[in-house]
Design brief:
There is one protein chain. α1 runs antiparallel to α2 (38-58). The chain is built from 2 helices and no strands. By secondary structure, the chain is an all-alpha fold. The radius of gyration is 18 Å and the shape is elongated. Helices cover 41% and strands 0% of the residues. The protein starts with 21 loop residues before the first helix and ends in a 20-residue tail after the last helix.
């Protein structure tokens, strides 16, 4: 087994779902309540994706992700 991968310096990056900004969460709630059009939601998603891409670039992450800003999740309360 090679010792190359056992000694620093080595780097690992893991980026998955990122926290959605409040503006996007509010727009999603408006869309669910039929208070805004799909196009408005898409514009909010586009803005959130652009912001998260800039953030990742600014900290030097080399594998950029959209942060799953378009992923639909609904909180289930029991």
């Amino acid at each position: 087994m090679s010792t190359l991968h056992l000694r620093p310096p080595f780097r690992a990056e893991h980026v998955g779902s990122l926290l959605r900004p409040r503006a996007l969460l509010e727009k999603r709630a408006q869309f669910d309540a039929k208070a805004c059009a799909a196009q408005e939601l898409e514009q909010a998603e586009d803005a959130a994706i652009a912001a998260v891409v800039r953030l990742q670039q600014s900290v030097g992450i080399q594998s950029i992700t959209d942060g799953e800003m378009r992923r639909y999740t609904r909180t289930i309360v029991f």
